[in-house]
Structure formats: structure tokens, C-alpha cells
Known about the structure:
Largest sheet: 13 strands, mixed
Helix content: 25-40%
Shape: elongated
Low-confidence stretches: 45-51, 66-97
Radius of gyration: 31 Å
Strand content: 25-35%
Mean pLDDT: 75
Number of strands: 18
Distance between the termini: 89 Å
Structural class: alpha+beta
Amino acid sequence: MNISLLHHLIDNTLTPEERKELMEYMRRHTTREEFFRLFDEVWVAEKDASIPRELQDRMYAHIIEQINPGADGQHSGPDRIQFYKHAVTGKIKKVIFSAAAACVAAALCILATHLFIRHSYQPATFAVTAELGQRASVTLPDGTLVWLNSGSCISYDSDYGHKIRYISLNGEASFDVAKDAEHPFIVEARGITTEALGTRFNISAYDTDNFLTTSLYKGSVRVNYSNASTILQPHQQVTIDLRNMKATVTSDDMELSEAPWRSDELTFNGQSLDEIAVILSRVYNTKIKIDDPSLGKECFAGTIHNTNIRNFIDILNLTTPIDYYFEGDTIHLRRR
């Protein structure tokens, strides 16, 4: 028999002629050993590798039980279907018909199982979260290292690495990607994907920001957005304005080996105090309110060692007179 006929049966694409050929083949064979050998070939070829082995075994056992349950409900094994050659032809036909019916039932079970796998099975999802004011790190199944900044989360399915290595990100994370040329590493954040192979990079994509920034420290990445893409070289970063999907590529002369926040540093490149306040709220898990609207428009640039918020404000005071006071769990900023 052409093994592709079972594949077509599973996909429900048999022509009437092919179906007739398959049924005739089943009727001619008197052992389940042969059928199960064919079944195994098709199962291995058709199965989704992302399905846990334990679930595959349960489905396989269920199909066997449907074909020939023993007296105690257990399958009696792939023994020969006995054809007792009675003198009465009708009895022989009855046994042959029973064997063919079992094969047809088996084929239908294969089809039902395949449809269940394709349409009902959903891989489990794993998530790692860094709460506000905290950071987290995780080693993925392939050895990739991920560091999460405050208020960030990544998620990935249990089939991670079977075909591709796909990560969803909300917030900011740094990646040190394990080399695996056969399984692309892709990070999705805010509808934008960053694809990398054996590289180190950082993505900032908080849902409260209007921009997504990808910074590359080692290797290369392709950032796909809208209908365009940008390939970064080491020490370059691309900032994408999510409001109009325009991208700006800049170079970092400092040639950093990792994102500054991983070294407890806060770096600003001309952000307003309004924007900085949002970052500080995440980092210190506290509410910040700017009492003077004009103060919120003041812009700052530089790197500050992240120790505590009082130290941060004291450093800001070197360029702009700022006073602060606490009201419950809120820090108020105002001009001094």
C-alpha cells in the first residue's frame, strides 16, 4: 500500500479511488501487526513534536483500546486476527468483515486524534515577572539568559525551541542568546519583533511609553516593524516611535557590554522630568507627582548610579533646584 494514503486519510483529502484502494488493502491484511506498523509510520510523520510524550502515549493507548479491548478492558496485544476456516463460507466472510471494520475504526480514530491535536491541543505558557521595584533573571530551556527590569514580564510556550525560540515581552529585558543556528530567536514586544542568533541585546518596550528601543551589544539583530526592518551592528540602537512607526538608528560611542540598568545605573539622553518620573516610579515602586507643570518639561542627560530616590533627586539638584516632600505613598517634586 502507498503509505501516503494514510496521510491523505488523516488530512481528509482522499479521492474516492484512493479510499477504495485503502479499504481493499485493509481487508486483505489479517494481522494487526502490519496495521500498527503502518500506523506508527504515519503517527511519527504526522505528530506535532510539541505535544508532550505523556499525552502522545495516552492517545496511542486510547486508539489501541478502541480497536481491540480485552476482556478486562486492556488491549490484548498485536496478536494475529484468527481466521477460523470453517466450511461455511458465511462465517469466513463474517470474520473478514470484522477485521476490516476494526481497521476502518482504527483509521477513523487516527483522523479524530489528528484533528484533536491540530485544533484542541494548546501548549502550556510560562511567564517570568519582575514586579515594580524589583528585578528578575531566568535561564531559558536552551541556555539563553534573560534579565528583567522593574515592572517587566516575559512569556513563552512549552514548545519553545522545537521549531523557533519565541518570546513575548512587556517591559524591558536584556538577552544573552544561546547560539543555535537552526532555531531562530525572536522577541515580540508591542507588535514589533526582534530576531537574533547568538547575540546580546536589550529591548525597552513598556506599554506606557510611546517608543520601543532595541540596543545591540554583541552580534546582530533584525528589528521588524510595520512593513520595514532594520539590521543593527554592535553598539547601535534603534528607537521606534510607536505613534507613526518611524525608526531612528544611533550609535553608542561608549561601546557598553550590557544595558546600564543591569549595573544599577540610570542613563538619560535628554528625557523630560515627566518621562523620568515614570521611570523612577517603576524602579522604586512609588508614586511621583510633579507639582509644577513647567518643571516636568525640564530635560536631563547623564548617568546616575541607582542607589535610592533621595540620592537621585539630590543629583538632579545640581542642575535644577528641586524640592521634594512625601505625602502618604507619593513623592511630590516642585521647584525650590
